[in-house]
Every structure is written in structure tokens, then in C-alpha cells.
Design goal:
By secondary structure, the protein is α+β, with helices and mostly antiparallel strands. The chain has a single domain, classed as CNF1/YfiH-like putative cysteine hydrolases (4-Layer Sandwich). The protein contains 7 helices and 13 strands.
Length: 254
């Protein structure tokens, strides 16, 4: 798993952006696919998620994740819930020790949050739809409702599709320019006519800093470019593969 120094330095906090290695899944889902939404055997997914918790030094049932739908919705978690009962949302927050908040991604941006003083944590799945509609700001607001202070919050941005890998059409860029013309700086021309390369990581970073969090750090890793480490929805689409794995990011107070 990959960690960020500013989160590792927080006493009583464990976190990780897990790679695809060291799991039990096979084929195009090899090896540490953590997504029940794939066509993988659910037993494999359960085993992979348990392995992730083992790496964090936590029991398997500590992990809590939601049914992600590319929304700005946030769930406040008081105790871990089973996968079958997971609510539809794209972010989680808690102030309870022993609850590992998990987010699944395969090119979208996973963001982990902590207020080290109030001991409040959060995890958000920021695809472009969720980022545009405010999932990051909603996560911060939900943390504040539990006692966090905006300027104390540390944000860790995990592996996601990089600027050199994320090609989009003209209508995609026009949507962002209609929201704010300053978003033009998040695009550069592609080698393909009338197409653009989108910097989703930079966009998420801008939203986080605009929300006033105290510190933002990123792994700087591209999920599409690093097939050895990460699953990628875009890669699967380009290859016309029938399925793709999901990588886990998690954070927990202990």
C-alpha cells in the first residue's frame, strides 16, 4: 500500500492507498480487486478487503464502504455496516475509533481527510461528476459538523488517472468552462483533433484548496499509466475488456 507522509505523521491514524498486488483475484481482475461491483467472485473480494485491513492492523469487519453513485452525498458513520446494507453515497466521515472508511476507485480520485486535533476523518470518491457537484466540500462540511475545523484538515489525494492519460471530447471541456472560465487551465490540447487532456487531479486540488483545508498532498501516481500497480476503467475501455478491478483507499482512527 502507498501512504502519504503528512497523514502518517498523525498519531493514532492509519491509512493506505492499496495497490492491485498481493490479492487472490485472477485474470484481468488480478490480484487485489476490492470491488463487489465487478464480476469477481464475492469471496475473492471479501478476502482482498480483509487483506487490506490486515495491512492496516485492523480486523476485516472494521472496513466500511458505500454504494458509490458519483454523487455529492456524504454518510456519517457511527459503526461499520455490512456491504449488503451500504447506503448510496460517495463519501464517509466519522469520529469513531476502529471504523475504517473505504473508497473504491479505478481512475477517479480518492481523497482521505483528517483533523488531527478533533480526531475526525473522512474519505471521498471524487470522479469528475462528484467533484463538480461538491462531494469534497460536502465531506469537509460533514467533518466540521463532528467538530473539525476547516483550516486544520489535512487532505491526502491518492492515485488517479493523470493529465497525460485523460483524453476528453470538446463537450466535456465546454461543460467545465461554462461553470468557470478559469477551468480552461485544467485542459491542454490532445494529439487528436478537437480533443483535450483533462487534469482531474489539479481540479480536485483546486477544489480542496478553495475549500480552505490546511494541507493537501498527493501521491502523484497515474492509474492508467501504472498497470503494474493499479486498476483503470479507462484502460479497460481502451482494450475493450469486459470488466475491471477496483482499488481500495482507507483511513481509520485507532
Amino acid at each position: 500500500m502507498i501512504t502519504l507522509d503528512h497523514l502518517t505523521a498523525v498519531p493514532g491514524l492509519r491509512h493506505g492507498f492499496f495497490t492491485r498486488t498481493d490479492g487472490v483475484s485472477t485474470g484481468i481482475l488480478a490480484a487485489m480487486n476490492c470491488g463487489y461491483g465487478s464480476n469477481d467472485d464475492p469471496a475473492n473480494v471479501t478476502a482482498n478487503r480483509a487483506r487490506a485491513m490486515e495491512l492496516l492492523g485492523l480486523p476485516p469487519d472494521a472496513l466500511t464502504s458505500v454504494y458509490q453513485v458519483h454523487s455529492p452525498d456524504v454518510v456519517t458513520v457511527t459503526a461499520p455496516f455490512a456491504h449488503a446494507g451500504a447506503p448510496k453515497a460517495d463519501a464517509l466521515v466519522t469520529d469513531r475509533p476502529g471504523v475504517a472508511l473505504g473508497i473504491l476507485t479505478a481512475d477517479c480520485v480518492p481523497v482521505l481527510f483528517v483533523d488531527p486535533v478533533a480526531r475526525v476523518i473522512g474519505a471521498a470518491h471524487a470522479g469528475w461528476k462528484g467533484a463538480v457537484t461538491g462531494v469534497l466540500e460536502a465531506t469537509i462540511d460533514a467533518m466540521i459538523a463532528l467538530g473539525a475545523q476547516r483550516g486544520r484538515i489535512l487532505a491526502g489525494v491518492g492515485p488517479h488517472i493523470g493529465w497525460d492519460s485523460y483524453e476528453v471530447g470538446p463537450e466535456f471541456r465546454e461543460r467545465f468552462l461554462a461553470i468557470n472560465t478559469e477551468n480552461a487551465g485544467r485542459f491542454r490540447p490532445s494529439t487528436k483533433a478537437d480533443h483535450w487532456m483533462f487534469d482531474i487531479g489539479g481540479y480536485v486540488d483546486g477544489r480542496l484548496r478553495g475549500a480552505g483545508v490546511g494541507q493537501v498532498e498527493s501521491t502523484g501516481l497515474d492509474t492508467l499509466a501504472r498497470e503494474d500497480l493499479f486498476f483503470s476503467y479507462r484502460r479497460a475501455c481502451l482494450r475493450q475488456e469486459p470488466d475491471y478491478g477496483r482499488g481500495l483507499s482507507a483511513i481509520c482512527l485507532v
